[in-house]
Design a protein that fits this description.
CATH class of one domain: Alpha Beta
Radius of gyration: 21 Å
Strand content: 5-15%
CATH architecture of one domain: 3-Layer(aba) Sandwich
Helix content: 40-55%
Number of strands: 15
Oligomer: single chain
CATH topology of one domain: Rossmann fold
């Protein structure tokens, strides 16, 4: 399997190269030259596999430059009950009829980002060891990516992490998870801006090819294809848990829908990939918070990036994003993989907080990809958290509440709806207390984390200053 850029560079690269590279040299994102297709017989064969066995089968369709035995070992080491708490790894929990939650947040940092980041850490260590090289990882986080990356990379040979986050705009728990780490290879940089400013700096540094190569810069944000690929697996795992096997492979396959809280479009983009592979997904329901740039696109066909002053600070802070970096991958597919047009739209119209509108024909074509969308507010969040607790004795976090609220607007008779849980409530205790009048439970290892000593550096919105910090500490 080879990979090309969304912005027209047709140079085909192998998985191991793009694993360490992140963005393509032309500023685009990598996608496989084509999505491998799975048929009913393959789905039937995969249905009884354990999570790590399923992950190996899916990943091996996209990774052919790591020996199969090595890949199998890496995946088996990653997805264990010891790390993720259950044998199923991503178990389903039933709510009302036709509605289920898929638990993705039982990893080390209590967020779904662990599902991919734990694998990424092991892949990085393997590939760097094989090459005898080192890597400086540069990332941006609105809350959960940073801690998941740091916990996955701490102590890894040949890896240093430089993680940017918006100063003062994460929950106290999220800040403590990151800033309390004292490992020498972890560097936290708090940027005096919003998440989109952090993301812009990451892209600016990555687009300086001379600096990127001299300092061996890689990424762990979902612009890295390997991370998104790991997320594809739990769509298949959720599907198998929610459906029964057909009587025979000639029978019509059951369909499901997924509802996904979405800020940077990475989580739901993995669902788009799974659906493109042939997983029987009826709807991919995208849920935003008050920062509704993605909902606006799927309703109107206009993608309008907001600036820092228009980006709302909300109680689901990991989605306080107004420039969804993974969205480019979907648009590339929507446009018939026209790299030149994709580049024109994103480079010319979006990078300076502009907008674009797809043609009427292209907008109609969105229906072929199964997307639907909706928006949730703070009041909706509180009501959904309260209702879910009162009716089902299930406590959910603020982002999952956004997903559940929008999922209910798109529920169809006879089609199971799986809501992807994105974090445990302990990460957003202030809003849980507001909704329920009680503190959420938290794992023993995370108690008192806010009182631990913190190590981080505050910096202005300045890519050059960040480059200087990296050069000094790499």
């Amino acid at each position: 399997m080879k990979y090309i850029s969304t912005r027209g560079d047709r140079t085909e690269r192998g998985f191991s190269d793009i694993l360490l590279e992140g963005l393509a040299p032309d500023g685009g994102l990598y996608l496989p030259v084509q999505y491998p297709k799975v048929d009913a017989a393959t789905l039937a064969k995969w249905r009884g596999l354990s999570y790590h066995e399923l992950a190996f089968e899916i990943l091996s369709l996209y990774i052919d430059d790591i020996p199969a035995a090595d890949l199998k070992t890496i995946v088996a080491k990653t997805y264990t009950p010891e790390v993720f708490g259950t044998r199923e790894i991503t178990p389903l929990k039933s709510l009302e009829a036709g509605m289920q939650l898929e638990a993705l947040s039982n990893g080390p940092t209590l967020a779904f980002k662990d599902m991919a980041m734990q694998l990424l850490g092991n892949l990085f260590e393997y590939e760097l060891g094989r090459r005898g090289e080192s890597l400086n990882i540069l990332g941006a986080t609105s809350g959960d990516t940073g801690s998941a990356a740091e916990y996955a990379m701490r102590g890894k040979k040949g890896v240093k992490v430089f993680m940017l986050s918006p100063h003062g705009r994460m929950s106290a728990f999220q800040q403590a998870q990151m800033f309390s780490l004292q490992d020498a290879n972890i560097h936290n940089i708090a940027i005096e801006g919003v998440f989109d400013d952090c993301q812009d700096i990451v892209k600016a540094v990555s687009n300086d090819l001379e600096f990127k190569r001299r300092h061996k810069i890689g990424t762990v944000n979902s612009i890295n294809w390997a991370r998104l690929l790991a997320q594809v697996v739990y769509y298949f795992a959720g599907y198998f848990q929610a459906t029964k096997a057909p009587v025979d492979t000639s029978s019509e396959l059951p369909v499901v829908s997924f509802a996904v809280p979405s800020g940077n479009f990475g989580n739901i983009c993995a669902g788009h990939v799974a659906r493109s592979m042939g997983l029987p997904i009826k709807r991919l329901v995208l849920a935003t918070n008050e920062n509704d740039v993605l909902d606006e696109f799927f309703r109107t066909g206009t993608y309008r990036v907001r600036g820092s002053t228009e980006t709302h600070e909300t109680s689901s802070p990991s989605m306080d994003i107004s420039k969804a970096s993974n969205f480019e991958r979907f648009v590339f597919d929507l446009l018939g993989r026209d790299g030149a047009r994709t580049k024109q739209l994103f480079k010319t119209d979006v990078e300076d907080h502009g907008s674009f509108t797809v043609s009427a024909d292209e907008f109609r074509r969105i229906a072929n990809y199964g997307f639907a969308s909706g928006r949730s507010t703070h009041a909706d969040r509180l009501a959904t958290i309260r209702d879910t607790w009162q009716r089902f004795s299930v406590m959910i976090d603020t982002h999952t509440a956004d997903g559940l609220k929008v999922a209910r607007e798109h529920l169809e008779s006879g089609v199971p709806m799986i809501v992807l849980e994105t974090a445990l409530p302990a990460k957003f205790a202030e809003t849980i207390v507001e909704a329920l009048g009680r503190e959420p439970d938290r794992p023993e290892a995370m108690r008192g984390i806010e009182q631990l000593p913190k190590r981080f550096k505050v910096m202005r919105v300045d890519a050059q200053a960040v480059k200087g910090f990296i050069a000094e500490n790499a």
